[in-house]
Write the structure tokens for this entry.
Amino acid sequence: MTRQAEVDKGPADTRQRSAATEPSDRSLPIGVFDSGVGGLTVLRALREQLPNERFVYLGDTARLPYGTKSPQSVTRYSLQAADLLVRRRIKYLVIACNTASAVALDALRERYAPLPVMGVIEPGAHAACAASTTRQIGVIATEGTIRGGAYQRAIMARLPDATVIGQPCSLFVALAEEGWTTGPIVEAIARRYLDAMFDQHPAIDTLLLGCTHFPVLTEALGKVLREGVRLVDSAHTTAVALQLALQERGLLRTDSPGSVQLLATDNAERFARVGSLFLGEPFARDDVEIVDLGW
Amino acid sequence: MTRQAEVDKGPADTRQRSAATEPSDRSLPIGVFDSGVGGLTVLRALREQLPNERFVYLGDTARLPYGTKSPQSVTRYSLQAADLLVRRRIKYLVIACNTASAVALDALRERYAPLPVMGVIEPGAHAACAASTTRQIGVIATEGTIRGGAYQRAIMARLPDATVIGQPCSLFVALAEEGWTTGPIVEAIARRYLDAMFDQHPAIDTLLLGCTHFPVLTEALGKVLREGVRLVDSAHTTAVALQLALQERGLLRTDSPGSVQLLATDNAERFARVGSLFLGEPFARDDVEIVDLGW
């Protein structure tokens, strides 16, 4: 059991918080957790923003996707995954999965306090609010994320007079995993999903990508969006938010080369093949450690 | 523990086999198991072919899809699901999932003997061989099914001089679950998957639908297939094979109305909403019993 795992569910006390900012903790890796491969777009953004950090990424490929599972199941899976990362000692936990961020963030924060935990919903909502001048914001995500309403609530909490229009785009996930990221088929599907939303809400000036798979479709989305509509990507804004949070806590690592360790719960071959597109660089099945979450 | 569950892993002896054909067993339901909603196309075909039977269908929606999981995980999930159905007493077990049929059929037969177990691979391969005169057979399925090669092996075992061309069509699953089953987008995707296969193998005269999701796309596939190419559907041929098998064993029920009981491991709302298209008739979340496979 590591220090983080021994901390009980109770609220963090001052001694524990200061312990978490000791210089020795700076060298610990940042734990990144996702249901599978999609979170690798977040890891990619994190590495670009934080090139000196060590990352340990866990994709729960044995149970992906989370977007079609119930909140109870997603919370159970998320706690199991986070347990493993925390046992390996990390200085920060990033939930690089929209579904898990939406339903399990509070449970994770409570369980691992004072370990800081960041999801992708809040940074994405913050960036969308900052980008919009019309306060008409579109959110595209999986069916589960849109139905859950987490982005809509996070945006409305910041801009109570905003209009937020959620549009599920489930096929985008399959397109991204198939590697069909540009061309007429992607554009036709994007038009079918988006045209009605923009026809009904022509003042939308910001489109938030609320699914970790979607950044690889940015080029195709750009071709079908109207002039002046901004694409906002949770991955990039989460990376910026994490950098600020690390600086505030004195946990930012600046003096040594970064690294990435990849873990998955099943099927390293597919994780490497599909995941290479999302991470933006090739990796092999032998680069992936298979772990058992002990169900 | 029911009778079936008490039977050990050893080979079936004669007394057990004759016990399974007692008239009293005829009234027991047929257990049907799938990773989620896709197997409901098989259940639909079974009900059409066997209107007097009782069916209990279990969709493992907590862990779907199986096609991207490793054989070890799929076998473990399949045994857990089958355990539950067998504990509820069934006279036949149908694996309405291509991935589970491909990797877990032997393990299931061994574990539950003398309970008869049928997968969808063998009936599908049999029908494709019967339909083809050129002995050039195309198989479309998920990536996992094609990579596993089970259909290719089952066809070659029957027609050693056949040429079998496997083509993964992963997006078809997402299209079917989205309910986009006809129209230009489906046809464009079908052409992208199929044109190269038919260009390279113009003598293909039979296309086997090796995924339980695909029957709902039959109309769109018919529009892009060349004249004279036959579509063969595992669901229908499995239903015919099951009817013959029940007759042979004296287990066919002909004298009373049939019924369906629906079980899922998670998210009854989505199971009902997406599954209604696959079953071919609407059902509600309250028609679905959520069960726990005890992981």
